[in-house]
Amino acid sequence: MKICFLVTEHSFLDVRIFKKEARSLAKKGFEITIIVPKVSGRLFNIDGKKITNNFGDSIFMHEGIKFVTYKKVNLSTNLAKLKQNIISHTHKSFSDPLTRLGVAEKADVYHAHEYFSLYSGVGIKRILKERKVKLIYDSHELDPDPYITNSKTKNIMIEMLKGMLKEVDYIITVSESIKSWYQDLNSSIPIEVIYNSPPLTPSYNEHYYPDNDKNDILIVHEGIIDDKRGNPQKMFEIIDICNKEINLTFRIIGGTKEGEKERLKIPPHLVNHIELIGWVDYHNIPQSISGANLGWIDLQPAKFLNHQFAMPNKFFSYLNNGVPVLVNKCKDMEDFINEYQCGHVVNKIDAKADDYASAIISLSKNPHYLKKMSINARKIMEKQYSWNKMEKILFDIYDSF
To answer: Is the omega angle on the peptide bond into residue 146 within 30 degrees of 0, that is, cis?
Structure first.
């Protein structure tokens, strides 16, 4: 079986797309092609930084996967035309480069990873109608987010999505709430949740939580840090509040979108309380997380329904390393934490620095509870949620074709 991944927004090295799904399917023996965008003539890394010293060819092989590249285009500038193309039930007006390159691959299955790559997937499926190709929509998030403020844009995109889903053979998504949302839109499509879980860390060591008066706490934040995720100003306030009673340090794995960690302007008095690891290779994340007492996730569920439903990579990275999760009130993560007792939920949708600080200080004084959560976190990954388990779901989907 030949599989073609369609990508419009993500890096060609994206963890879910390349590191996990593509490599797992290639390991199983499928022939994989990933069609990915270039910006200003270059591919870009997961931190958004352009790659200038490698991967310059338009077609190349990397770790047994074929990559085909194209110049990124912004399809969202003419939504009305795209909607008309969808409801026309023909392929005549599908002229974007991703559609053209996808048709040329003549694959058996097309696996779209974003809203607009799904649009191209519909065009490809129509053009290759006689081949009876299959189309998978791998929805990493809700798009459009139902909380989007421009109602006209949202309405067009929802109507487009309903039309596109009529031509989808399978939906994959990342949380139970997003799954339910799609089932409400179209209950006839088979759908599975494949969580953003990493492979099980082989070198895991059980955490040691000393019962003493030092109250040293190390909190890790993995990924992009900006005003939407891991607000740096909030982080600085948390440290200031906590350090009146305990010794708190934040470790940042990742940083700004451009990958330039010096852009994070740390107040001079907090320099010794923030460890800047920067962006690391996917396989080195467990080592970078090692030793942390808590993993922090701070989202904005009042502004984005995606944040209410989110189950991000970092959530499972923390659990995989036996690190309990500290998060504000986001539905799917809260449900998971409550079921498996593997973290702490601050009971506020819009959690402030003092809300987090209060929770951190309380947890620091209860090392036995932290240890119990740590053991639970690792146990549930071993038993049910590691990528080793998730890829079996992925294989079952493809075997069904």
So the answer is: no
Which CATH superfamily hosts domain 216-385? Glycogen Phosphorylase B; (3.40.50.2000)
Question: What pLDDT does residue 210 have?
Answer: 60
Q: Which residue carries 């081949």 as its tokens?
A: 131
Tokens of 400: 């069904």
DSSP 8-state secondary structure symbol assigned to residue 237:
H
Which pair of structure tokens corresponds to residue 180? 């339910």
- What is the C-alpha separation between 170 and 125, in angstroms, rounded? 13
Say how far apart CA 26 and CA 395 lie, in whole Å: 11
Ordered by start, the domain boundaries in the chain are 2-195+387-399, 216-385
pLDDT, tens digit (0-9, with 9 covering 90-100), for 230-239? 789 999 999 9
The architecture (CATH level 2) of 2-195+387-399 comes to: 3-Layer(aba) Sandwich (3.40)
- In the numeric block, which tokens belong to residue 92? 């005549």
Give burial (CB, 10 Å; 0-12/13-18/19+) of 139. Answer: buried
Q: Do domains 2-195+387-399 and 216-385 have the same CATH topology?
A: yes
With contact defined as beta carbons under 8 Å apart, do 320 and 381 qualify?
A: yes
Between residues 206 and 370, the one the model is more confident about: 370
DSSP symbol at 201 = P
- Containing 274, the helix (H) or strand (E) segment is strand 274-278
Provide φ and ψ at 128, rounded to 5°.
-95, 30
Judged by DSSP in three states, 273 sits in: helix
Helix axes 367-380, 331-340, angle to 10 degrees: 100
CA 342, distance to chain mean position in Å, is 20
d(CA 48, CA 346): 31
Rounded to whole angstroms, the Cα distance separating 168 from 164 reads 7
Alpha-carbon distance of 329 to 341, in angstroms, equals: 15
Report the C-alpha gap between 33 and 18 in whole angstroms: 10
| C-beta of residue 50 within 8 angstroms of C-beta of residue 39 | yes
Query: In this predicted structure, what is the pLDDT of residue 213?
Result: 60
